[in-house]
């Protein structure tokens, strides 16, 4: 690893990011791989496990999501899981070599009455020596403080797309509200995980705007999940894609998005997130070359299938990749220090 990390900029212009996307693919990959190895061990990938702790019945209308009440996806709504069952799943994830345990709830926002159970879950999973991440929807400053106090390491809240395209995918809350929650998470001292989805029918200009929004936040998210849309039947976007098969995101364009995220946010962990199940090994390998250094393991994401441990073990062996070990949770202050 290069001892002198790349300087961190939060003043990227859209034009600069568009120019990255426009580079010859070989040049873009060379730049992304160079930034990657200057700041991270290039053959180590962080393993995260997801668990849906409260599934379905969500009042929001996100056009991609199987868990929205607006979707006719067959996902049944359930209540918040009991603390013991969550801890059992976390123990299993740890046994399987996972470093981070990410818990998701299909809520617009947690209710105050949910918070004691959530706090207990965070404390229990932390005590097992796993990094904790939660994604529960919008938070008030007080709820963010409660999560910080409980020891939550990361909070996931995605901006999902460019500000312009966001409004065409979700109408029940604004991008501004998403950014407010990210601000509360940051102010509480919790590490930020924020990314989005590629392949929702957006244009390249939207993908530029998506990366630009993240890369110009006052401080880059410590984790940036880049999801490829998992088209779920019964959702607006899943059905739209089923009717127009050519709308599926081009693999090379997906890799370009990963590379642009890596170059503009050099210190962040860039997670190759949903959609790996239907991605070829070659495309995943290109994403790792382009700077992706984190994945979700296991057979299931929240409701959709994931690549699975056996195929991941085979892929890692083929590519000579290993699990990232022993990393301390990257505290927000580390990023600020490295930026100086
Ligand atoms: N309700 C919370 C929220 O929206 O912040 C947390 C759970 S939500 C399912 C977490 C993220 O998963 C979304 O922001 C979206 O980026 C991603 N996601 C959901 N459905 C997806 C799909 N079908 N394909 C790809 N990513 C998806
Ligand atoms: C993120 O960006 N991707 C994860 C996690 N954050 C919570 C969720 C992916 C969900 C994929 C669709 C599903 O399982 O329903
Ligand atoms: Fe609800 Fe989150 Fe799904 Fe949107 S993405 S419908 S907020 S669970």
Please describe the structure with a list of short key phrases separated by commas or semicolons.
about 350 residues, alpha/beta, globular, binds S-adenosylmethionine, binds 6-(5-methyl-2-OXO-imidazolidin-4-yl)-hexanoic acid
Structure summarized in a few sentences:
The protein has 13 helices and 10 strands.
Query: What structural category arises from helix and sheet content?
Result: alpha/beta
Most strands sheet = 10 strands, parallel
Small molecules bound in the structure, each named once: S-adenosylmethionine, 6-(5-methyl-2-OXO-imidazolidin-4-yl)-hexanoic acid, iron/sulfur cluster
Strand content: 5-15%
Shape estimate:
globular
Which regions have little confidence, pLDDT < 50, spanning 5+ residues?
328-340
Q: Give helix % range.
A: 40-55%
What's the pLDDT, averaged over the residues? 92
* DSSP, total strands: 10
Secondary-structure element string: HHEHEHEHEHHEEHEHHEHEHEH
C-alpha Rg, in Å? 19 Å
Number of helical stretches of at least 4 residues: 13
